[in-house]
Write a structure and sequence with these properties.
Blueprint lengths: L1 E6 L4 H18 L3 H5 L9 E7 L2 E12 L2 E9 L8 H15 L4 E7 L3 H9 L3 E3 L11 E7 L1
Parallel strand pairs: 4-5
Antiparallel strand pairs: 1-2, 2-3, 3-4, 5-7, 6-7
Length: 149
């Protein structure tokens, strides 16, 4: 049975899953990885989740405040052997619920054009493409999305 733990960036399982995510992104992003990495540190993330099955950590995600009404979805990852089982969707839904409970109105996110699985996940869950925001404005390999919650 899948359980999702609300935690923060000090959680050891979250830290280990993010290390795996960063290793995967280093391959996918190639020469662009250092640019993206600067925006994806996990120090002081207050709102992180880890998905477990039988106490085994399978995936993670986080949200952080972007502005007074908006949370940014960050650090979404599911172990390769656990993909296509609805885990990423469950993590995303839990992050959205948490943001709503905290009185935010919208979630935004950035993903890379090479991350087709992520793009499909976000579209499936009601996210719509928006112009690249903030540090991603003008970045050709980034796609940004938002969703009212």
């Amino acid at each position: 049975m899948l359980t999702i733990l609300r935690t923060n960036s000090d959680n050891r399982d979250f830290i280990e899953l993010v290390k795996l995510l960063d290793a995967d992104l280093a391959i996918r992003d190639g020469n662009d990885h250092s640019f993206y990495a600067q925006f994806n540190t996990i120090q002081a993330i207050k709102y992180a989740v880890v998905a477990y099955e039988d106490e085994l950590p399978l995936g993670c995600g986080a949200i952080k405040e972007y502005d007074a009404d908006t949370m940014e979805v960050k650090r979404m990852y599911v172990l390769p052997e656990s993909r296509n089982k609805g885990i990423a969707g469950a993590i995303l839904s839990e992050l959205e619920r948490w943001a709503e409970e905290l009185s935010y109105k919208k979630c935004i996110l950035e993903t890379g054009k090479k991350q087709s699985e992520a793009i499909a996940l976000y579209i499936k869950h009601g996210y719509r493409a928006i112009p690249n925001y903030g540090q991603y404005a003008g970045v050709e390999n980034s796609l940004c999305f938002d969703k009212e919650i």
